[in-house]
């Protein structure tokens, strides 16, 4: 292979990790008659462990070389005072968009019984409407992830916010249709399709514009606002529906979302507006030492991705059930009124927002004190899986409203630690493809959520209670904990 190249090899500083035979080579223009291999500047190794960089000989038995059309492009993030302000503004803009994404989901849950009564729907019809949102949400995950990585997460998220706000504002029009139940399902599908960009776009934006040492904090702040949206939506919807009816809540939230999307994009700095994916991340070719192309998806990488996939399925399953059915559970199983269930149902999401933010701050501090990133992520995921499993298991054996509410608050709050676990881990092991991978895992996770909503609706209609659904979800959380601890130990998949 004749090219001038820069070779890098990961050389651990601890005995526990062995040096890798793999080298990453960035191709540069060829000079006649010369071939050289030089070392890269010092860099950080797997998940934050300092490593030395040195020239890597291409003599290994199975060396893997990655040729790029352009050299690696450094992060556009800055850690100076000006950079800190821009990161804060970015987090605020994305955080409010995520808050509205969550609020727009929960207002339907708060209005569901009123819509059910006015349109003459059954509980299965309500489940179908919930699932229609998820069908739309899942359809656009892969495309949204790819678009976020290529065109920028901020652009994709705010564009999506504008589109889904229009769909939310159009929801009440379904009551005027000749087939209102079908029209409602269509409007929910459109809302889901437009909001499918929320998670992959926010992940891609943080990966592109926030320094690695601040990503846990940035993600935790964004997801804290996302969870505040659930609380805000439920609390606002209960009173507004009782006063103005369920239609007005959709009109109001639709207008607010569209206005924020336009204003936030107008206020974005030019560096965010003009951002495009570096050429090196779009033209990677993997070859062996003989110049023959190889695939990135080795069996080891596939195993890691499948483990991540299952853990994300469980995160989605548990979260979607709680977000979609909590007000109905409070009214159906605990006998609360619609208005009170909306206000009380906001309490778990306020605690969730607190835990989401706090877990990210604690994670950043642990990393700053020298704890390896993958171990911090593992700790967060243990809390995010064992805690909810115990909380949901306890719900099986109580019908006391105060105890049940405490279990729900603990469950929703502790599962929020997955932000400092799963979502931050993905930034660590695949920063160049965080949006695409999250889009893939979230697609399957959404499909599982659709099934979860259908199963929940059928189970509640058959048994009159949520206990069986809670037990199944608790078992899934326990399995996720086992999978994470066995398979996911910080190996970088896509630098």
Automatic annotation (TrEMBL):
Domain named Major facilitator superfamily (MFS) profile: residues: 90-492
Alphabetically ordered keywords of this record: Membrane, Symport, Transmembrane, Transmembrane helix, Transport
GO molecular function annotation: symporter activity
TM annotation in the entry: 83-101, 157-177, 189-210, 222-242, 248-268, 305-326, 338-358, 379-397, 403-422, 434-458, 470-488
Highest taxon listed in the record's lineage: Eukaryota
UniProt cross-references to Gene3D superfamilies, sorted A to Z: MFS general substrate transporter like domains
Subcellular localization(s) per the UniProt record: Membrane
Pfam families registered for this protein in UniProt: MFS_1
Membrane topology summary: Multi-pass membrane protein
Listed Low complexity bias regions: 18-30
Entry GO terms, CC: membrane
InterPro entries, per the entry: MFS, MFS_dom, MFS_Na/Anion_cotransporter, MFS_trans_sf
Annotated region described as Disordered, given as residue ranges: 1-48
Principal location listed in the UniProt entry: membrane
Signal peptide limits: none
Family: Belongs to the major facilitator superfamily. Sodium/anion cotransporter (TC 2.A.1.14) family.
Protein name: Putative sialin
Origin species: Ostreococcus tauri (Marine green alga)
């Amino acid at each position: 292979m004749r090219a001038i190249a820069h070779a890098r090899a990961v050389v651990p500083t601890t005995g526990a990790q062995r040096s890798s035979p793999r080298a990453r080579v960035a191709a540069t223009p060829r000079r006649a008659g010369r071939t050289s291999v030089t070392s890269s500047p010092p860099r950080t190794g797997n998940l934050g462990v300092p490593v030395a960089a040195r020239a890597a000989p291409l003599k290994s038995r199975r060396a893997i070389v990655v040729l790029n059309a352009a050299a690696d492009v450094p992060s556009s993030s800055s850690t100076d005072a000006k950079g800190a302000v821009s990161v804060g503004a970015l987090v605020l803009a994305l955080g409010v968009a995520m808050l509205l994404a969550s609020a727009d989901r929960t207002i339907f849950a708060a209005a569901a019984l009123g819509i059910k009564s006015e349109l003459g729907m059954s509980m299965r019809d309500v489940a179908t409407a919930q699932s229609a949102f998820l069908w739309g949400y899942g359809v656009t995950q892969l495309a949204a992830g790819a678009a976020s990585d290529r065109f920028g997460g901020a652009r994709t998220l705010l564009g999506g916010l504008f589109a889904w706000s229009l769909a939310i504002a159009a929801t009440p029009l379904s009551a005027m249709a000749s087939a209102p139940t079908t029209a409602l399902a269509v409007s929910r599908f459109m809302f889901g399709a437009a909001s499918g960009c929320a998670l992959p776009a926010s992940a891609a934006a943080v990966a592109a514009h926030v320094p690695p040492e601040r990503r846990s904090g940035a993600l935790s702040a964004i997801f804290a606002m996302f969870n505040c949206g659930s609380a805000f939506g439920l609390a606002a919807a209960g009173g507004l529906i009782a006063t103005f009816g369920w239609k007005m809540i959709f009109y109001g939230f639709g207008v607010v979302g569209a206005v924020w999307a336009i204003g936030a994009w107008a206020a974005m700095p030019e560096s965010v507006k003009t951002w495009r994916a570096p050429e090196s991340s779009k033209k990677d070719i993997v070859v062996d030492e003989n110049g023959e192309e190889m695939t990135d998806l080795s069996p080891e990488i596939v195993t890691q991705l499948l483990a991540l996939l299952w853990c994300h399925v469980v995160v989605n399953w548990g979260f979607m059930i709680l977000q979609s059915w909590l007000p109905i559970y409070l009214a159906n199983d605990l006998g609360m009124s619609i208005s009170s269930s909306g206000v009380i149902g906001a309490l778990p999401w306020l605690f969730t927002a607190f835990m989401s933010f706090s877990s990210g701050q604690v994670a950043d501090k642990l990393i700053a004190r020298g704890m390896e990133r993958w171990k911090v992520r593992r700790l967060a995921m243990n809390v995010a899986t064992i805690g909810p499993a115990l909380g949901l298991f306890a719900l099986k054996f109580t019908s006391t409203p105060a105890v049940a509410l405490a279990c729900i608050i603990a469950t929703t709050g502790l599962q929020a630690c997955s932000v400092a676990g799963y979502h931050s881990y993905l930034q660590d092991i695949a920063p160049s493809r965080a949006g695409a991978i999250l889009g893939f895992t979230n697609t399957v996770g959404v499909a599982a959520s659709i099934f979860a909503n259908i199963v929940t609706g059928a189970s509640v209609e058959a048994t009159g209670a949520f206990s069986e659904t809670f037990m199944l979800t608790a078992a899934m959380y326990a399995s996720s904990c086992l999978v994470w601890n066995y398979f996911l130990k910080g190996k970088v998949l896509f630098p």
